[in-house]
Specification:
The chain is of the alpha+beta class and 55 residues long. The protein is built from one helix and four strands, in the order ββαββ.
């Protein structure tokens, strides 16, 4: 699962599945990232520490 360097200057993942798999690995290492989100600016997925908001 290689992270891409995006136009946003953040680590990007081409699919949600790859982003979620990386998130799981980080959780197991004790990191605090809590969710993934899609970025239309670079057409990729990113990780965030912010809790997901539901409408």
């Amino acid at each position: 699962m290689a992270a891409l360097v995006s136009e946003c200057a953040k680590r990007s993942y081409p699919t949600r599945l790859e982003a979620r798999a990386t998130l799981l690995k980080l959780w197991k290492m004790g990191r605090s990232e809590s969710s993934t989100y899609y970025c239309s600016a670079c057409d990729a997925w990113h990780l965030t520490r912010k809790k997901r908001r539901w409408p």
